[in-house]
Each structure stands twice: as structure tokens, then as C-alpha cells.
Amino acid sequence: MRNRLRATFLATSLLASSLLMGTVVTASPAQADTADTPDLAAAASVTPTLADRLAAVKVAKTINYYPSNAGWSAMWTNFDPVAIDADLAEAASLGATNVRVIVFPDAFGYPTPKVEYTEKLRKFVSIADSYGMTVKFTLFDWWSGYSEVARSVSWVQAILGPYQDDPRVIAVEVKNEFQPDDTAAVTWVKQIIPAVRAIAPAMPLTLSVDGGTGAAGMAKIKAALVSTPLDYYDFHFYGNSERSLAEIRKAQAAVSPTPIVIGETGVSSSATSEGEQAVYLARVFRAAAEAGVGSVAPWTLNDFSAGAIPSQSIVSTIPAQYTFGLFRADGTAKLAASVVRTAWTTGAMPNAYLNLGFEAPANELTWKANQPAAGVGTVVTGTARTGTYSLKFAGTTRTSSGLPSMRTAPITPVQPNYKWRAEAFARGFNATGVTEISLSWFDENGKWISETTSNRLPVGNTTWTKLVVDTVAPAGAAGVQLHLKSADNSGAVYFDDVAMS
Prior knowledge:
By secondary structure, the protein is α/β, with parallel strands linked by helices. It folds into two domains: 4-349, Glycosidases (TIM Barrel, Alpha-Beta Barrel); 362-500, Galactose-binding domain-like (Jelly Rolls), CATH 2.60.120. 28% of the residues lie in helices and 22% in strands. The protein has twelve helices and 21 strands. It has a five-stranded parallel beta sheet. It has a five-stranded antiparallel beta sheet with strand order 12-15-20-17-18, with no helix packed on it. Helix 10 (244-255) links the parallel strand 9 (233-237) and strand 10 (260-265). The longest helix has 18 residues, at 274-291. The model is unreliable at 1-32 (pLDDT under 50).
């Protein structure tokens, strides 16, 4: 469980301010439970405009959120304001300025929400505000009643109406991961968007797409909504982070000139490693900055404990879905939390996250084995150029597909014709075969283009020798991998102090 004393300290020391209006008041978690519905007294007195809110959306430091022990609809059925307060204090400490909250019709009551649930929503908005965070609403998740337009509108009026002029709420996602090939869904959304605009004319509206639908799906949505356009598009990115710049630019092109945000992104730490999860987010933040996308929202703040995801969701049966969090279920921070804090507070993305000196803990490994049947590099002590650890290959062969290697990819996105340099120090003990480093280039679809190799380490016994690749990214390049290779080696080779720029 998060440190409650820290939550209280943050609550009383942070400023709860209107991001849009510049109005500043001090607030605390206790105040979050005392205001009258819809708590407009805590909001700024000046009515926000659509332009104000949209400007805030485009730069929001948004966190996706459920409590670690109550995911999805369970957040509302097992509502715990004390746990939410502590969690949002933690999010604010990372630099978050906005939190996305998903409102489920079945949980809240449809088409007439239950008063106890609208009160829970009011409390959530107030708690977020006490930490200087605005809120985005996502509506109509786990819902497909597309023939019920009038009932849908009635439900939106009850949920959204109290917040139409509340600057603490900056946007509404009408439907989570909308499916543009669902004819009934498209027919429904064409009617619901004008109705939502009538309820909240100054509220930016969006739809999100899932990772599989991607840019092509966004283009379909834009084409279908020519007469009822959205204010911005919400891109959920779970693709290959090494080529994330190319994917983000595809999404931008699909809906241009309408802006986009990255409303969900991340990777499961149990499906990869905590190090790879961190580097994945670092690459996406860096690529988004390069593309001019100012809002990237990690999925999600917390890992989930056993039983936290409602059993009616297929997600509950997928182990990897429990470990996308920046924090473990016990409240301790993963490396990913450091990445997000750095992105939101300094904007820098240092290569240190890549573990180029092999000094990071085992659970923060970012290097992956290539051609492992022919040999795998292992992190060892005893023969380091600097620090304590180095990467060792011994007794390697090769396969018909290539040489065994350990590989990683840079945080900086790849663009054609940009200069790249990679280097590593290698040392051999009775080394044989081929020891080198290389840069392998890939296009936007992940197709291999070419490889640039370094000088080779001499066979036999050597001192620490620098291997260098100095080159230019080829035409069509959208991704690159750095490989540390040692093949046909009956002796041993150590790598250390890798650099890439």
C-alpha cells in the first residue's frame, strides 16, 4: 500500500489549480469529500471555452488509472476514496496533470445513473483536483446498445451535464476503442456526437482506436464523421516501440489536420522485463516529441493484484494484462515510473535506461538474445572494463540465419539520412571466429533493409578493444538494432561500455 503520510503531505502542499483558467486555490484530500454536487464551488469561476480545453488536452500529462485491487468496473463497485487519494498523490508526484477515468453504463446504472455512483464520480473529480489534476471522461465502455440512441443521450446528460462548464473536466472520449467497421456503431456515433455537443458545447470530443485498428481505423472514422467531426483523435499505441515514430506519423497523417494524442501506450513487464517496459515508454515519449505530439498517456499507473480485474472481462484471463503498471501491485515503483517522471518533468530520455554498461539489476534487462540456439550472452562479474559487470559470450556457433548476438535498440527514433555511431569495448580470451558489433536497419513495416558492421576483434587474447560503427541511416529506415556478436568462438569474449548516438 502506498505511504499514506506521503499522500497527506502532497495533498496539503500541492496547488490545485485550473489548468485552463489560471485560477489557483489550495486544497487537500479532506476538501475533496465535502463539496456539494457537482462541486462547482471548487472549480474556477470562469467558464472554459472549447479552445481552452483543447489546448489543455494537447499537452496534458495524462495517466490511465484504476486502483491496483479494483480494475475496470470494480473501481466503481468497490469504490475506495482513500486508496484513490493515495494513488493520485503518487501520480501527481510523477508530474501527472490529468487522469483518464472510464465510466461504465452497466456499473453506474443505465439509462438513469444511480445517485450513489454519480456521487462517486464527483468524489473522484474532486480528489484529482486536490492534486492539481484535471480529468478526462471515457464513456460507453463495455457497452454496445447501439440501437438505443435516446437512452444513450439521456445517460450522457445525467453523467456529463453537471460538468459541462467545469474546467476540471477537459475532454470526453465518447467510446473507448471504437470499431469503425461496425455499421451499427457508426450509425449510433453519428447521432450521439451532435447530442453530446448540445449537452456540453465547449467540451472536446474524441474516439479512440485499439492497437490493431491503428491509423487505418482512424482514417475510417474521420471519413465516416465528415458531418460530425471530432475535435481530436486518441491513438492507442501498443506496436513496436523501435519504429514508433513512423507509426505516430501514420496516425497523424490519417486524420490531419485534426490533432492526435497517444491515449494509451505501454508493454507488460511480465511479458518482457521491467527494463524493456521502461525503454518501451522512453522510446514512445521520445518519438511523440519528435512528431510534435504533446500528450502521451501510459497504460497504466498500477499493476493489478489477483482478482482485481472483473471475471466477465476476457482481460482477466490474460496474465500479461496484470503487469502494465508503473507501480507494482504492492505499491513499489518499477523503472518505468522513473521514465515517466523524467518525461513529464524534464523531457529528457537518457540512454542510461538502455543498460549499456550492464550494471542494472537483472529485472531491468533490456538486451535480447538473437539466434540463441548458437549462443547467448550472459551478464557476469570478474571481467569488466568499468564497473562490476560485463557481457560474456563463450562456446558459440552460428545458425543458417546468422550469428548469435545480444541486441537492443536506441531511445532516439530513426530517420533516414541521419548520422549514427555505435561503439563497444570487447576483450577476448582464446577467442576464435567472428566478434563484432553491427547496426541492422528496418523499414516502417519491420522489414530488414541492410546491416552496417564494425571492425572485428582479433582472435586470441586481447586487451579491451573499441569496436565502432559510424554510418548514416539508409533510405526508408524507420528502426535500428544494435547487435553485439560473437560466433564460432571456442574461447570467451566480453563486451562492456557500449554507446550509441
